[in-house]
Design brief:
Layout: E1 4-7, E2 19-20, E3 25-26, E4 36-39, E5 54-55, E6 60-61, H1 63-66, E7 73-79, E8 83-90, E9 94-96, E10 111-114, E11 120-127, E12 131-137, E13 140-144, E14 151-154, E15 157-159, E16 206-208, H2 211-220, E17 226-229, E18 234-236, E19 242-244, E20 249-251, E21 263-265, E22 271-276, E23 281-283, E24 286-288, E25 303-307, E26 313-315, E27 318-320, E28 325-328, E29 334-336, E30 339-343, E31 350-353, E32 361-363, E33 366-370, E34 372-375, E35 381-384, E36 387-389, E37 397-399, E38 406-410, E39 413-414, E40 432-435, E41 441-445, E42 448-449, E43 467-470, E44 478-481, E45 484-485
Parallel strand pairs: 16-17, 17-20, 18-21, 19-22, 20-23, 21-24, 22-25, 23-26, 24-27, 25-28, 26-29, 27-30, 28-31, 29-32, 30-33, 31-34, 32-35, 33-36, 35-38, 36-39, 37-40, 38-41, 39-42, 40-43, 41-44, 42-45
Antiparallel strand pairs: 1-4, 2-3, 5-6, 7-12, 7-14, 8-11, 8-13, 9-12, 10-11, 14-15
InterPro entries: Pectin_lyase_fold/virulence (IPR011050)
Organism: Halopelagius longus
Biased composition (Low complexity): 168-185
Length: 498
Amino acid sequence: MSDSIKKINTSVADTLSDSVSDTKVEGSVADGVDAFEYTGHITEFDFDGSAKVTTKPTLKDVSSDLVPEETSKNKIEVVSDGSITYEFTTSGKITKLFDNGKKSAEKENDSVTENDDGTWSASGFTGNGYGDGFEFEGELKAFSPNSDDFRLLLNGKEVSPEDFGDVSNDSGSDSDSSSSSSGSNEAHIGGGEGYSNVVPESEATEVVSSLSDLKSALNGASSGDVVYVAGDAEINMRESKLTVPSGVTLASNRGIGGAKGARLYTKGHPWGMLTLQSNSRVTGLRIAGPRWDWVDETETTELGLDAAGSGVEVDNIEGYGWGYAVVRTADDTHVHHCHLHHCSRMGHGYGIATEGSDYPIIEYNKFEHNRHSVQGNGGGYEIRYNVVDVPAISHVFDQHRPGGKTMKIHHNTVRVVKDEGGRSGSGNAPAVAIRGVPDDVADIHDNWFFNDKKPRSSPSGWTDEAIIQVHTDSWQNVEFNNNHYGSDEPASDIGHPR
């Protein structure tokens, strides 16, 4: 009630089963009548069973009026061929749609929150021709961003995000920028806005915006040349397999004035869309494969960048959608300040595949939604200063049997807790899994693992601690010290630079 309520002083109100406060009553009745006197108006009424409800002075039958009506729901879908981080606010409850085809929401990447003022907010990240879908009650009050490369559908009809106000976002977060406020490259984990070692178009030897021009420019390039893909270019690579010659830089404008960088994409299945020869560099581009959702290993697989020589550098790219990997390294490949995500194929699905590479350096990258962020298959690597966000589909940093050579894993932050792929059953996702015994050592130190399960005293197969060693019943050539386990923040010298 809006004002007050009390029992009528007659025998019709059941004094045992009815509870009355100033504005609320709870009770039950069977084969009889409950009666109450109130002032104001009825603000809410719920009941189970069959009943007739009347009010004085007219004793009007209001039973049907008091049965809660089914609230009308609206459907919102966000779709992007590239990638987009979005946020919106509604006046009523928001629910994720998990059975909405290629526009289904994700359990981890997308979040829904009820705000203190009674409104609801949702935020997420999607792309590569896929989308996210939600149902909501009430009206759409705000949506951000209001200008970008995406489509916004409201109840199946495309609408302009400019028709709605911007969502206030004090954090200023963006999937394409750093989580740190420092001005150094080291602070800009994942590259993008604020990354300083960009290549401006003014340094270009040749600027291209089509597949034919790109082929021609790379075929004619020599060491020291810069082949520049115009920042607004979207090039369908189809099944093309091109080579970046030795000493040549292939660049675009990711991070310059907030630019996302040109997008080289394919709906095909090339094995090495770009092969990188010695001392070449790929920077400032978006490298998009045909995937977004999980696929099983019967599907054809594909590889984005294949380092085929020494001294290769891959930096400040956003790479996603590859069945095998965004990048396959050579012995001394340097992969840094990249955002690598949504590589989620059964049996493969790597942000970076090191295979048998001796010692690639992998640093200041942001990973998410990969089966493994980094894979090894007999070689070694150094993985440092990276951030791995949720979700993960299996363990995060990997080394296959027989166990690799020299692996150094330090000063990373792995925010993953649960194994979304079920390798560990319903348990946690290991941050590091060494399968076998390294020839030299796997040295794991000064990392921040959100998985709060510390390593066992002795390995026991595929368990769900933060660090595991498989195919042995004792720790052999695996060392771990000064790591932090759990989501509470450790000292600043543990985990990624911040």
